[in-house]
Amino acid sequence: MPNTEYFNFKQAMRYLGIQSYTGLKDLINAGLPISIVGKSKKIKKTDIDKFMKVHTVVTTTGKNKHEENL
């Protein structure tokens, strides 16, 4: 993977370890920021790291907090 601050979607998917564009679209719809310049869409590496940190769930009983509230 290139040592770059901005990833194209394919590079971002590889960095995140996801296999489908649908999975990436789900993260974008959940608030992962993207930069659009002309027809080019990029995702900043530090934005991915921040997004994942904010959306990390710590489990204590085998269920995440979201599941406990259902």
3D architecture notes:
- This is Helix-turn-helix domain-containing protein.
- It is a single chain.
- With 70 residues, this protein is α+β, with helices and mostly antiparallel strands.
- The protein has one domain.
- Helices cover 44% and strands 14% of the residues.
- It has 4 helices and 3 strands.
- Strands 1-3-2 form a 3-stranded antiparallel beta sheet.
- Strand 2 and strand 3 form a beta hairpin.
- The longest helix is centred in the last third of the chain and has 10 residues.
- The model has no long low-confidence stretch (mean pLDDT 89).
How many beta-strand runs?
A: 3
Q: Provide the low-confidence segments as ranges.
A: none
Q: Could you give the distance between the termini?
A: 39 Å
Structural class: alpha+beta
Into which percentage range does the β-strand content fall? 5-15%
The strand line-up of the biggest sheet is 1-3-2
Q: Could you say which overall geometry the principal axes of the C-alpha atoms support?
A: elongated
SSE order, one letter for each helix or strand: EHHEEHH
What distinguishing features does this structure have?
3-stranded antiparallel beta sheet, 3 strands, 4 helices, elongated, alpha+beta, 70 residues
Give the topology, please.
Elements: E1 6-7, H1 9-16, H2 21-29, E2 35-37, E3 40-44, H3 45-54, H4 65-68
Antiparallel strand pairs: 1-3, 2-3
Organism: Lactobacillus gasseri 224-1
Protein name: Helix-turn-helix domain-containing protein
